[in-house]
Amino acid sequence: MMHYDVICIGGGPAGLAAALSAKENGAEKVCIIERDLELGGILQQCIHNGFGLHTFKEDLTGPEYAQRFIEKVKETDIEIKTDTMVLEIGKDRSVYILNPNEGYQKLSANAIVLTMGCRERTRGALAIPGTRPAGVMTAGTAQRLVNIEGYMVGKKVVILGSGDIGLIMARRMTLEGAKVLAVAELMPYSSGLTRNIVQCLDDYQIPLLLQHTVTNIYGKNRVESVDISEVNDKFESIPGTEKNFECDTLLLSVGLLPEIELPFAADIVMDKRTRGPRVNESMETSIPGIFACGNIAHVHDLVDFVTIESQKAGNFAAEFAKGNLQAGNGICSLAGEGISYIVPQEIRANNCKKDLELYFRVNRVFDNVKIVLRIDDRIIKEIKKRHLAPGEMESIKVKAELLLNAESLKLEIVNN
Amino acid sequence: MNKCKKYDVIIVGAGVSGTAIASAMAPYNLSLCVIEKTNDISNGASKANSGIVHAGYDAKPDTLMSRFNVRGNAMYPGLCERLDVPFKLIGSYVVAFNSKELKILQELKERGEKNGVPDLKILNADEVHSNEPKLNPEIIGALYAPTAGVVSPYELSIAFMEHAMDNGAELSLENPVTDINRSDNGFIVKTKNDTFEAKILINAAGAYADKIHNMVMEPSFTLFARRGEYFLLDKYAGHSVDHVIFQCPSELGKGVLIAPTAHENIIVGPNAEDVDDPEAVETTQNGLNEVWGSALRTLPNLPKEQVITTFSGMRAEPSTGDFIIRDYDEAPGFIDVAGIKSPGLSAAPAIAEYVSDLVKKHIHLVEKDNYKPERRKIIRFHTLTHEDKAKLVKNDPLYGRIICRCEGVTEAEIVDCIHRNAGAHTLDAVKRRTRSGGGRCQGGFCGPRIIDILSRELNIAKETICKDSSASRIILGETKGEGKQ
């Protein structure tokens, strides 16, 4: 049985950064396991630009951003297993893998980093009524077919959901000669980045219909049309407001969910809000030595922040592999008024050698408010914000020394 | 004019009834063809239903429904073992919320006993809640039927057809019947593509069985389309219930059921709505709301966030109120298998047994020397032990590549389902046979990969691969880019 110091499951941006960081921080035998034929993950199909503005101060495409890390990995002796699926992980940090060349094998590791990313919510999850024709697919599946395989998936397109992939695909389909009729968004605001709304919709005069949703799908074989209706404050469609759009394709960009098959089967504790594993200050899950970072821990807006988080997780995985991480329970980070979730969910101060970055999202749109951080009911930090929206991940830094002996930590949004 | 194709037996319709009959005829030396109007097995009512093998207390005594349900139920365990079809004998509860409903349970129990259903038992509140702790605490009792089970209905139909074909039967897909005439030897069946002649003609045409009947003889029944809508939940919701949970039938209707499926998802439904068009298998907001609202009464914490898909299915409700399974003196050799509403799935094996007896009245059946009673086992990779997985990949590297991550389906399983008898040609056909695309991501990940595999294995262009019907293309052409790989 092959043994590694650190195994990263998933060779996208999170796995690449975590593996490199583990290696740089003293893990000797590091392995990346990737189910696709190439490293890079979803970045390989994101051929638009806008990646790396934070990490490299450059405007890169997805494949370019991935390539920078892939090349760095290839300069090391990090082992890469592509075309390989992990079927099971154990509490003892065993990893069962499967690929056509080496067959079915059991590996073991001192530390595992879960870097499987996320998947898209589907039509079924929304229970959109209507027929079940061809031509309804997630924006990411369409993106793969168009950008990787070179096939057009539609000529007249409606997009439900204004998540970033939906916005990007509105522009992509337009550039490929399709007509994008509208982007419908359930919420009164887009969950996508502002720059994507401007560059992908406004620049092509594609209407964004806020507080609207698709309420019916027609067509026996291929999509023939969809109804779009207004919704009320409870997100219920308002009868009589439906408008029919003739189209052959409905793309869905209605949210991303952490890819949790493996941790779920291993009984790792999940967070109801992030729907990924709960993690502590080291990005360690409820099973010691199993870490999680990137979109499996919580869905990020920008790959740059996936990279930063995964470098941290890789570092702590290496420390764990060397026996340098303190075990035990910590305090919970409490999501107060206006906060949807905070990552990490648990903090053990004795492992916080550096300042701790808390990542969080608000649960609705706020204007002119402040973010308030309390430790033991004492206000530690207040940050004034002119605008906050769930679509943009926020962060706040806490000094390591303030965490020592802390009994509680709470984040909330307070009116100015 | 094409040459007339001659068979001893022609079955119209490749749903569960038609394919079950084809399978029941497999031991005999005869020529048989199943003619189906769509492009796959089990494409009508047989693919979209609750997948319940009922115990048999629902139907009134002395009906064909009660007789074939109870007999069919008893045949299921052995049948599914022999044909390698997912089936679980999990038992069912009919739950009662008040003393009036308790009384109905008692009536159901007595009726079931009259029908010959074994081991029925009324459970008290404690027994119900200790076995099914998530049920509504207001439930005060249940009728327990240990012989109820769950089956994968489309896999059963596919298995029936494959088994029949392994033993020499033929299948003609996308070939709707357009006209039927009598001949000296039996029946001339005209279809879209061919002309067939058969000594025995079996009408198992589902929602269209009245139309087929009327091509042969005077109308004697009509069928009404009754639609039922369903939710399917992720395996993460798997242990919401461990038995099939029915609501007590009342003046408001039969109520909805909540049950584990043969693949350990949770199914919730159906409602019942009469519609004009048997093809109108869309879901509706009102229908889905009705189903979910009703199900919450049984299971107040039913997890909505675990819904992975919704669908609706169509039942053929006969004007006679009972199955119509019979031959006719005025049309010797013609057999109706019509109006097969619930419990048609449960009854299918027994119906097939009975119909093969009817066939024996008309032609002399001789047993084959080389009859294969079992279907070649299907390898379901994710169910194997570590050792067996390792062994399998060594022999065939395609078992080493997972295509559907949600259901853990390997490339070898998909290739196998394409090349078996009654094999898959579309994404949905692959899904029905292997589960690939039937999990929580609903084909988002494996869809493009299965298009590649279908294209490679069937040697057809990717653009021509369909989701389901032969007009349901997924790819509409190439992108603008040149110099593609």
What does the radius of gyration of chain A come to? 22 Å
- In round numbers, the mean pLDDT of chain B is 95
Unreliable spans of chain A are none
Distinct helical segment count of chain A: 9
What separation lies between the terminal Cα atoms of chain A?
59 Å
CATH architecture of the largest domain in chain A: 3-Layer(bba) Sandwich
Work out the helix count of chain B.
12
Number of strands of chain A: 27
* Beta-strand content of chain B: 15-25%
Largest sheet of chain A: 7 strands, mixed
Shape of chain A: globular
**What class, by secondary structure content of chain A?**
alpha/beta
Mean pLDDT of chain A: 95
User: What is the approximate shape of chain B?
Assistant: globular
Structural class of chain B: alpha+beta
Oligomer: heterodimer
Separation of the first and last Cα atoms of chain B: 44 Å
**Strand segment count of chain B:** 22
CATH class of the domain at 87-149 and 224-315 in chain B: Alpha Beta
